[in-house]
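Here is the promised in-class demo. Please do not try to memorize the tokens; focus on the logic of going from shape to residues.
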């Protein structure tokens, strides 16, 4: 493809999205650029503070547990208080708790503040996703979620590199730096993002009806949605094996931490390189097929690790499950929005977020136990089986799913569908 052709494709990928989306996207990018603590928390506790690896594991688990606890609460807040106040509370709380963590000395206070920091950090996710669903029209949501996911990975790749350099000089700078950048995100939200929560339908008692119509009970009784949440957990369970099981398995095969770093870097590089063009290809295709295929690629991508004996083969397995990730993430987020009533998007997003938080807790524990008891090959076989189950689940669960509302063909129609939506603004916003 020529340079001009690449330019046209890039413009198509970012054009037509509302101004508010780009401010939210910018906030996400800044937030991920400063994600230092999650990268070096274990090294900080073991190398700098001298704690044991088991204590570092407990602190990491408590940080993850905080995310599980806050998922549903933050979803309810996003629906009741609004997306903007929930986001502001979460980001300000994250900024101060992360900065405070760098000053903690005693094991109990370190563990307690890590738990609070995990709660605060995860609380912003349901609000971000609900706000994005509010401000982006139906036809552009897969593309919008893909662009947001791309920003997350660009920021994470940068922060991972910078975290190592910061850790060589002062871990405290990392804690304070993340706190400062998170505060910048809060200021950006305060200045540039209006509340996006849909207004209740006009009529007597509409507000009370809207408030009582969607509750956590409503979410739990939505069998199709809860089925998607369960399948999301299975996919997340497989993906999370790269955090502990993959480096442990590579170490047992005689590979160094540097080898693991090289292999896992393929994930971030590939997402940054192909996320946007792949999304252009899949955004208007059948979500049932896309989720089924991505589940199979996820399971068998990790399953292929059982046959890896060289860096090249390990990298090939990462390519397979990264392609699954690129397809699954925006498609599944679009599906979650389709299944969520507008007045309950916060609660629905909170339940969906919780599936990933629970997977982040359980996957390392299960993966480590399976490797200790039966070996790494057994774990990779289980991943392939779980991916197959998830693929079958998506295929049967999405039978009879109502079609998406037709995309507006004219600006006038689109403006009628999205009251108050400003004119689109390019990515340079």
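The designed amino acids, position by position:
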């Amino acid at each position: 493809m020529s340079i001009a052709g690449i330019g046209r494709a890039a413009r198509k990928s970012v054009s037509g999205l509302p101004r508010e989306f780009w401010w939210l996207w910018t906030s996400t990018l800044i937030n991920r650029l400063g994600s230092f603590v999650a990268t070096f928390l274990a090294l900080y506790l073991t190398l700098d503070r001298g704690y044991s690896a088991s204590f570092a594991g407990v602190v990491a688990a408590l940080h993850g547990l905080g995310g599980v606890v806050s998922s549903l609460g933050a979803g309810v807040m996003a629906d009741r208080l609004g997306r903007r106040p929930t986001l502001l509370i979460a980001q300000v709380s994250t900024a101060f708790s992360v900065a405070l963590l760098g000053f903690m000395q005693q094991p109990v206070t370190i563990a307690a503040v890590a738990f609070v920091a995990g709660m605060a950090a995860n609380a912003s996710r349901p609000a971000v996703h609900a706000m994005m669903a509010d401000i982006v029209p139906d036809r552009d949501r897969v593309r919008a979620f893909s662009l947001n996911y791309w920003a997350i990975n660009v920021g994470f790749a940068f922060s991972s590199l910078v975290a190592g350099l910061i850790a060589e000089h002062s871990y405290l700078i990392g804690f304070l730096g993340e706190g400062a950048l998170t505060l910048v995100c809060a200021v950006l939200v305060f200045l540039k993002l209006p509340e996006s929560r849909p207004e209740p339908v006009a009529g007597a008692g509409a507000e009370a009806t809207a408030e009582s119509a969607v509750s956590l009970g409503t979410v739990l009784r939505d069998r199709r949605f809860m089925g998607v949440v369960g399948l999301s957990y299975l996919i997340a369970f497989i993906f999370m094996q790269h955090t502990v099981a993959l480096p442990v398995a590579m170490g047992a095969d005689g590979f160094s931490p540097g080898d693991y770093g090289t292999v896992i870097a393929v994930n971030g590089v590939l997402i940054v390189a192909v996320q946007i063009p792949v999304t252009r290809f899949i955004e208007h295709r059948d979500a049932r097929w896309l989720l089924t295929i991505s589940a199979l690629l996820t399971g068998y991508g990790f399953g292929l690790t059982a046959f890896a004996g060289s860096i090249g083969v390990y990298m090939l397995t990462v390519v397979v499950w990264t392609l699954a990730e690129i397809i699954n993430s925006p498609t599944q987020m679009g599906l979650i929005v389709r299944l969520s009533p507008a007045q309950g998007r916060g609660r629905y997003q909170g339940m969906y977020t919780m599936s990933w938080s629970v997977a982040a807790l359980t996957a390392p524990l299960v993966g480590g136990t399976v490797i200790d008891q039966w070996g790494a090959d057994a774990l990779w076989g289980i991943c392939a089986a779980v991916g197959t189950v998830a693929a079958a689940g998506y295929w049967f669960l999405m039978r009879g799913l109502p079609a998406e509302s037709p995309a507006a063909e004219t600006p006038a129609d689109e403006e009628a569908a999205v009251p108050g939506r400003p004119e689109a603004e390019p990515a340079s916003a």
